[in-house]
Write a structure and sequence with these properties.
15% strand; 40% helix; 10-stranded mixed β-sheet; single chain; cobalamin; 3 domains; Anaerobic Ribonucleotide-triphosphate Reductase Large Chain; DNA synthesis
Length: 965
């Protein structure tokens, strides 16, 4: 480590001078003489985690000690993921105190050893403040810190790595080995293959070269093997190829062809799900692919001109291609299978602090870390909701405390490089020489909603930009102060001009940013002060770190901090899945919703009514008293009102000028999106100055069972393909017998009278519906008659009743209003009433409860006990009278038959407690509410459906991720 200094740091935070140099550490949260552990209530918990698919116990540790305010999920994940030592042995960690002490005391010891603190008292404050912030979930280090620091194994602290490969067999084989060692440690790596000569170039010994795409096969197989060899998560990797590489078209098509193979094999009966027995026969599935484009190429796309593909050895143009056609080919591939993503080379290198030491040519697997080849970055993320102050309804973001925590975390992160181990010698040398850090944040989506900002709004983007600017400006200010105490990074002298130029670019972007309201304006002011200090101190002292900030997915650590949203993402949905102490679970409306309504000026009784509506419907549409102009505040990533794709891109663009690195984020696009829509996203990403992005069109990948029908030829890549034999599975109509049990219900909706007859199969299950309207005229009566026939045919072809219920409830048109049904007092239309009544009559409790449909008795029970679900003794009490109370008039024709059906329903209700459709995560809950497929893989560890976190997937059940952070 470099011990030289260019002068003492200024201000109250640090002092300099021989023999006495070191940082003065300020108190933020702690009290002198009181340890942070003594200020919280601790309790013992039992952690038992099961695989819901087969009921097997994945992990068990009883009597672990945690603060009482930590959620069940956070306790489960930290205990199972981060506690060290074999379970059941004296070496096993048994509480959060041990875990935090193991990490924090290691950081303090290294800080003292390498001269970071001015005195032992400053080291004490550092230790206590760091422990307090971790204990109270204010921030978290990335997972490798919790895995490795303070243990006897190598103390790897970085999650993100960038490798390099040259045009030689020795280098290619080194790539395989280095990548494998990184995967073995549970991390991910990325690299650019563009130095490898193309298949259109000659070898020195004669003959054509294999090309980079062929070598990708070997690396992919290696990653897949290591993944299946016992790692707790999939190997994560990024492969980048420059757009002017002669093999770029083959690179773009790799994933498309494999997706076609997956579909063909699945149609033939092979198990092609993630983790399936036969998925290993498919190639290129362990990497994210990205094309690195230049401004020259993008301008050629806009102008419709040609673009040259260049030989790797000579640099000569060996082929001219239509730039727009190549760009469209990228969009077609991304539309079909989500790969490749795109990285904007000139933008990335325009913000490069160390260009004299090499260009930035690649990224880590999630695309947030971008710096020199053979380097690494350790991450830490702050929980933004911890800095939202709400005094008597007067909200503010605590910029001063936020800045102090950033200084504390940056100091700790830099200390970690002093003692850290690295997977390869080259990575260790580069990281120690440039000391790249990656501070970021989580819970942005929750913060914006809680403050009454729509995610896709100028106000929301202004607040996000201000916080990001303050975070990075404060980080570089502390980096300059550290440079005065323990010296600048080794590569600084060579790159000083470029580094200071980039600092001015950040400061200029901060000055030019638009201020919007009373929340973001004070944060912008604090950021402006920080950037002015960066320019002053950096010129004098240099900088300790070549890079300071990124926005990572914050997968597992986001759950550790009990964050509602990950990284820069918006909220997934308004209703969440929550595990309860002692077992069980429940669905709750996000805690941020009441805060948002309060910020928007709604009174307590209005808030209560709106929250109740959300709890029942899962969205804010037609919520009582909620103004339509406020709907956008509650827009989420999925659901009835999902955020438009360009809304995601605009948010990335708002944060990007204030980050050293990039942003891990996937732009979700609806299944109706076209190839042209993908092109527009990629084009606007370049124009808005984003460094990298990826898109995901719903239902484009084979992550869950899909229809065997081939995609339309218009969605296929332009090159000709041989016609394939497609096996189509058609539904078979199951007709009802001549004699069939049924229920006839009379109803009144908004004064319109009618009768509904619902007939069932003998083994139960709705099979047909007849609707007759009384005195309503021929048009409405005829339409309802035709509608009932269409529904009946659909039921007989196997369309589940819950699908109809999810689609037709809440449909609004006249006649609407009061009904004479005590279970459905109000209906927004006749169709709304019909399917609520059918759900109550034919769906099991758990299914309709997930759809927000309950009887009057159940709603009363919820008011009295907090639960809609009947107690065990109540299930046996269901009888004909209880059934008949569900509708004003019933004419079953056979009382004995009705009694038998009632008994069967009681048994069904009892059997349905461990229902197949029980939710185990927020993603699964959302699927049940909306009747959609979230297009996410199942967790390999616990079987829970994962959800997107940045460019990766996260399991809410056990904390596993498919990425590298």
């Amino acid at each position: 480590m470099t011990e030289t200094t260019s002068g003492p740091a200024r201000g109250s935070r640090a002092k300099g001078g021989k023999g006495g140099k070191g940082l003065r550490i300020e108190r933020i949260h702690t009290t002198p003489g009181v340890h942070p552990y003594d200020e919280v209530v601790w309790e013992r918990r039992d952690v038992v985690m099961t695989n819901w698919r087969d009921g097997s116990v994945n992990f068990e540790q009883r009597g672990v000690e945690f603060p009482a305010f930590w959620s069940v999920n956070a306790v489960n994940i930290v205990t199972s993921k981060y506690f060290r030592g074999a379970v059941g042995t004296p070496q096993r960690e048994t509480g959060l105190k041990q875990l935090i002490d193991r990490v924090v005391k290691t950081y303090r010891g290294a800080g003292e050893e390498f001269g970071y603190f001015a005195s032992p008292a400053d080291a004490d404050i550092f230790e206590h403040e760091l422990a307090y912030a971790l204990l109270h979930q204010i921030f978290s280090f990335n997972s490798p810190v919790w895995f490795n620091v303070g243990t006897k194994q190598p103390q790897q602290v970085s999650a993100c790595f960038i490798l390099s490969v040259d045009d030689s067999m020795e280098s290619i084989l080194d790539w395989y080995k280095e990548e494998g060692m990184i995967f073995k440690g549970g991390s991910g790596a990325g690299l650019n293959l563009s130095r490898i000569r193309s298949s259109k170039e000659l070898l020195s010994s004669g003959g054509n070269a294999s090309g980079p795409v062929s070598f990708m096969r070997g690396a992919d197989a290696s990653a897949g093997t290591i993944k299946s060899g016992g790692a707790t998560r999939r190997a994560a990797k990024m492969v980048v190829l420059d757009v002017d590489h002669p093999d770029i078209e083959a690179f773009i098509d790799t994933k498309v062809k494999e997706e076609e193979k997956i579909r063909a094999l699945r149609d033939a009966g092979f198990d092609m799900d993630l983790g399936g027995d036969d998925i290993t026969s498919v190639q290129y599935q362990n990497a994210n692919n990205s094309v690195r484009v230049t401004d020259e190429f993008m301008r050629a796309v806009e102008s419709g001109s040609t673009f040259g593909l260049r030989a790797r050895i000579s640099g000569e143009v060996i082929e001219e291609v239509d730039a727009a056609a190549l760009f469209r080919r990228m969009a077609e591939a991304a539309h079909a299978c989500a790969d490749p993503g795109i990285q904007y080379d000139d933008v990335i290198n325009h913000w490069h602090t160390s260009p004299e030491s090499g260009r930035i040519s690649a990224s880590n697997p999630c695309s947030e870390y971008m710096h020199l080849d053979n380097s690494s970055c350790n991450l830490a993320s702050l929980n933004l909701m911890k800095f939202l102050s709400d005094d008597d309804g007067d909200q503010s973001f605590d910029a001063a405390r936020f800045a102090k925590v950033v200084e504390l975390v940056i100091t700790a992160m830099d200390i970690s490089i002093c003692f850290a181990d690295f997977p390869t010698r080259k990575i260790g040398e580069t990281t120690r020489a440039f000391r790249q850090l990656g501070i970021g944040y989580a819970n942005l989506g929750a913060l914006l909603m809680a403050t009454g900002h729509a995610y896709d709004s100028d106000g929301g983007r202004a607040l996000a930009g201000a916080i990001t600017s303050l975070m990075t400006g404060t980080s570089y200010r502390r980096s300059a102060e550290l440079a005065a105490v323990v010296g600048p990074y080794e590569g600084y002298a060579r790159n000083a001009d470029a580094h200071n130029r980039v600092m001015r670019q950040h400061a200029d972007a901060n000055a030019a940013a638009k201020r919007m309201d009373d929340l973001d304006t004070p944060v912008w002011a604090a950021a402006t002060d920080a950037w002015q200090e960066v320019l002053r101190l950096g010129k004098k002292n240099g900088f300790r770190n070549a890079q300071a900030s990124v926005l990572a997915p914050t997968g597992t650590i986001g759950l550790m901090m009990d964050c509602d949203t990950t990284g820069v993402e918006p909220d997934l949905a308004l209703v969440k899945f929550k595990k309860l102490v002692g077992g069980g679970s429940m669905q709750i409306v996000n805690n941020t919703v009441p805060k948002a309504l309060k910020r928007l000026g709604y009174q307590p009784e209005q808030v209560e009514a709106i929250v109740a509506h959300i709890a029942e419907h899962g969205n804010v549409i037609d919520a009582p008293g909620l103004r339509t102009e406020h709907y956008e505040v509650f827009d989420c990533a999925m659901g009835e009102r999902s955020i438009a794709p360009m809304g995601h891109v605009r948010m990335m663009a708002a944060a990007q000028p204030f980050l050293s690195g990039a942003i891990s984020k996937t732009v979700n696009m609806p299944s109706t999106s076209t190839v042209e829509d993908v092109e527009e996203i990629y084009l606007q990403g370049w124009k808005l100055g984003v460094k990298a992005l990826a898109v995901y069109v719903e239902n484009s990948k084979v992550g869950q069972p899909l229809s065997a029908k081939k995609k339309d030829e218009a969605k296929q890549p332009e090159q000709a393909r041989e016609p394939e034999k497609v096996v189509e599975y058609r539904p078979v109509r199951r007709r009802l017998p001549k004699g069939r049990p049924g229920i006839t219900t009379s109803f009144t909706v908004g004064g319109a009278e009618g009768y509904m007859t619902a007939n069932s199969y003998p083994d139960d299950g709705l099979g047909e519906v007849f609707l007759k309207m009384s005195k309503q005229g021929s048009t409405l009566a005829g339409m309802m008659d035709a509608f009932s026939i269409a529904v009946s045919v659909g039921l007989q072809y196997g369309v589940p009743l819950e699908t109809y219920v999810s689609k037709f409830t809440n449909m609004r048109f006249e006649p609407a209003g009061m009904t004479d049904d005590q279970d459905v007092r109000m209906a927004q239309s006749i169709v709304d009433y019909i399917f609520r009544r059918l759900a109550l009559d034919f769906l099991p409790f758990e299914t309709r409860s997930a759809l927000g449909i309950h009887t009057a008795t159940e709603r009363k029970r919820h008011v009295e006990t907090g639960s809609y679900e009947p107690a065990d003794e109540e299930l046996g009490a269901l009888d004909v009278e209880g059934l008949s109370q569900s509708a004003p008039v019933r004419d079953t024709g056979d009382v004995a038959e009705s009694a038998a059906r009632a008994e069967q329903r009681a048994a069904d209700a009892a059997d349905s407690r461990p229902a197949p459709r029980e939710a185990h995560s927020s993603t699964e809950l959302l699927e049940m509410q909306l009747g959609l497929n979230a297009d996410a893989p199942l967790c390999l560890s616990c079987g829970t459906k994962m959800r997107r976190a940045g460019s990766c997937y996260l399991c809410e059940g056990c904390g596993s991720t498919s990425g590298c952070s």
